[in-house]
Amino acid sequence: MDAKTGHNVKSGKLVVGDKNWSFPIYEGTIGPDVIDISKLYAESGMFTYDPGFTSTGSCESKITYIDGDKGILLYRGVPIEQLAEHGDFLETCYLLLYGELPTSTQKSDFDYRVTRHTMVHEQMSRFFQGFRRDAHPMAVMTGCVGALSAFYHDSTDISDPHQRMVASIRMIAKMPTLAAMAYKYNIGQPFVYPKNELDYSTNFLRMCFAVPCEEFKANPVLARAMDRIFILHADHEQNASTSTVRLAGSTGANPFACIAAGIAALWGPAHGGANEAALKMLGEIGKPERIPEFIKRAKDKNDSFRLMGFGHRVYKNYDPRAKIMQKTCHEVLSELGHRDDPLLQVALELERVALHDEYFLEKKLYPNIDFYSGITLKAMGVPTNMFTVLFTLARTVGWIAQWKEMIEDPNQKIGRPRQLYTGEVRRDYIPISRRK
Ligand code: CMC
Fold first, then answer.
1. How far is the CA of 269 from the centre of ligand 1 (A)?
2. Closest to 295 in 3D by CA, of 374, 353, 361, 342
3. Do residues 245 and 402 touch, judged by C-beta distance below 8 A?
4. Which DSSP state fits 369?
5. Would the pTM count as exceeding 0.85?
6. For atom 31 of ligand 1, which residue has the closest CA?
């Protein structure tokens, strides 16, 4: 046991030619061991090279664990299936932030603290007016969340644990308000203020879908489905946007700025935008009879087409979130009387065909969370350009928990990767008159 780090230590040897170096190997509580190569450069003069970080552990974390081969996802040790079935989103937020499920007193205190922060500074609404109406809501979110640091100066001192927690609660509380404002601005409707007597997800649905001229009636099945979607997206260990938040945070940047950086990273179609693409693909397929044609294209090396909502960098088994999402999708469609939705029929048949196809089995390509989330959100009346915004809202707690964990780690350093340089070697400046 290493006294400084508290890790169980073994050691491994790297041999290059006639030289060799020994490095410590740490065991986690579950999952693969890691080789600590932080002294590699100092001792050998070499860097490691791992574009895409497919073999690199960037940090130590106690928050989320994924076993991609077995299809397991745990938040603080608790299986995602159990949280989605029995928990609610704010309970999940508490678990991710504090490491334990709350007692009932802790839960009501936490809910109270979050609901007390749901309003945004009134001046924020003028920010929205500065955007074009047809701006993508993710562009608006990136700008507005970054702007929060200009409004809440009393929670930007990252060295103060109290301010860190206030900033965390503020972001969890204000994200639904900002997301709904981005939507309302986009469609030209007035902003709807939060109503704190409502639960988190019902409040969000009301801020999105209520209008001043009508009474809003919440549908508990849809509110529960939305809550579950938030739980499923709350954290996913060191993915691209979370790593972005950690890297930005490692410089000492304030938490609002770090989360804005995470939103920008999430916007990309390879990350947060895949459910939109999956929905579009199901629409293009249109009817079950056309599935073989698309399966053939997905398998064709000369065709760039891929089955959207299938495959995952980490899951080489059924994405556990996809199973829950499929069930939620059925619940929502039957509640809304859309059980015969042609998109659902296509999705179910496509899944069945792919899961019996040698190509998909051999490459371990299973449905991921995005396969069913698009159909569900569409049925709930959420426009496609808002899908990634909902992901942002839900992932905020994961980003914050990971950012806090990093700031509170005594061994934390600024993130500064190195490179394999393949550019020009040293050469002299040539005055412009002598350049050819
Ligand atoms: N359809 C057809 N073939 C596929 C697919 C697919 N959806 N995904 C991977 N493959 C094939 C790929 O062609 C490659 O074949 P080969 O070895 O013959 O060259 C092999 O499977 C491995 O693919 P890869 O691109 O090297 O795997 P990756 O781990 O880099 O990519 C992925 C993972 C998610 C980007 C990819 O599976 C994909 O593009 N899926 C569709 C997009 C999608 O649904 N994305 C959402 C991911 S879940 C959201 C989240 O958690 O953030």
1. 13
2. 353
3. yes
4. T
5. yes
6. 313
